[in-house]
Amino acid sequence: MASDTTPPLDESICRVSDSMVASGVLASRDYRASLPSTNSAALEWLSDQRGDSSANATLASQTPRLVIAETQTAGRGRRGRSWLTQDDGLAFSLVLANCHPLLSIAVGVAIAEAIEHVAGPAHCGLKWPNDVWMSGTKVAGTLIERVDLPLAANGYPQTMAVIGIGLNVGSSPRLDEAPATSVCEATRKWVSRSEVLTELVPAVIECANLCDSNPQELLQSFRKRCVLTGEGVRCHVDGEIVQGRCEGIDDSGELQVWTDTGMQLCRSGEVSRVRRV
């Protein structure tokens, strides 16, 4: 008989997530030993609300919602990439109402601030649009997916965001094509997953709210951590490859690249560093 390799639930994660529900930080949580992808599970939950006459009430009473797993068997990153989560890392998704254009900026700032608070003194850099760096390498990544639900109650769509976060806490995967680090490796301090989760979930929710209430605070926080500012970069703008000097982000959260033909704005996609000549 094959042995059961499903990992047990972490009691400290249970306590932290239950406490956040009890205190009102979260409205609901779904904690599993194993999931193919926390984002996919969150999207499936949202899909179940389509056409439900009580969906408005359900979404209001159940969000913010945390979906978290001990292991992901098919974690997803941006542009179809996979995300490998160590057994001492965090892989979770938050379901929030609304999907603001600055949400990616907000989530990056939240991750950086949470790590710096729990593992300080430490400094995190932010690589536009959605990577968090420590010691010059990636420590966390995000995948934000927008869902427009056609709710049956009033006929108007409800915009939701599923925010997937993968964070290396204790150790990092050894990948030839993409070097990585972890919070503990970068700071040489022991930090538990539950400590990081306790700081990170409220930080994401708070920073998401700042998208409307105080976007300049978010933008300034991102700008002071932007690792691309002043660097030579290459990106795609309107289907064409653009190369130039990164001038940081504008007030819309778009990456500004100074080229031979003037300023270009990169709105989405991959950005890579290049050697300036």
From TrEMBL:
Which NCBIfam families does this UniProt record tie to the protein? birA_ligase
* Top-level lineage group: Bacteria
What is catalyzed by this enzyme?
biotin + L-lysyl-[protein] + ATP = N(6)-biotinyl-L-lysyl-[protein] + AMP + diphosphate + H(+)
Q: Which Gene3D superfamilies match?
A: 2.30.30.100, Bira Bifunctional Protein, Domain 2
Q: Does the keyword ATP-binding apply?
A: yes
Q: Which UniProt keywords apply?
A: ATP-binding, Biotin, Ligase, Nucleotide-binding
Give the matching InterPro entries: aa-tRNA-synth_II/BPL/LPL (IPR045864), Biotin_CoA_COase_ligase (IPR004408), BPL_C (IPR003142), BPL_LPL_catalytic (IPR004143), Transcriptional_repressor_C (IPR008988)
Can you give the residue ranges of the BPL/LPL catalytic domain? 36-212
Its organism's taxonomic lineage begins at: Bacteria, Pseudomonadati, Planctomycetota, Planctomycetia, Pirellulales
Q: Name one GO cellular component term.
A: cytoplasm
PROSITE patterns given in the database record: BPL_LPL_CATALYTIC
Q: Which Pfam families match?
A: BPL_C, BPL_LplA_LipB
EC annotation from Swiss-Prot or TrEMBL: 6.3.4.15
Task: Say yes or no: keyword Nuclease present.
Answer: no
Q: Which GO terms describe its molecular function?
A: ATP binding; biotin--[biotin carboxyl-carrier protein] ligase activity
Q: Which gene encodes it?
A: birA
Annotated protein name in UniProt: biotin--[biotin carboxyl-carrier protein] ligase
Question: What is the source species?
Answer: Allorhodopirellula solitaria
